[in-house]
Amino acid sequence: MNHHYNKNLKQYADELRNTSVSRAEKYLWKAGLSRKKLGVGFKRQRPIDRFIVDFFCAEVNLIIEVDGNSHNFKGAYDRYRQDRLESLGYLVIRFQEGEVINCYPEVENKILRVIEVLKSRQ
């Protein structure tokens, strides 16, 4: 299953992964999402459908988005994007940049609880 992978966005996703990753995204990746530290594998800047998501776990169909200042005026678009991704069968959870950096243990606990629930439904 390709999980709605969009190869046409691959080059752009690669550029995002290497050039414009936020401090919070780097922190979340290193602290918890890389190397299956939370028990499941994640990919960064993954092209899904017509979007590039921050983090994606195929094992449990989970998408994690980190919202920085650029999201302050994109509420309607973020809602549309999230609704579209959820209509494809994914669960999308969002964190604010400051939340990731300043309250990481709580963020990690929430992600772990969501993974546990999603695994229990399989």
UniProtKB/TrEMBL annotation:
Domain DUF559: 8-115
InterPro entries the UniProt entry points to: DUF559, Endonuclease_DUF559_bact, Restrct_endonuc-II-like
Endpoints of the signal sequence: none
Domain of life: Bacteria
SUPFAM superfamilies: Restriction endonuclease-like
Protein name: DUF559 domain-containing protein
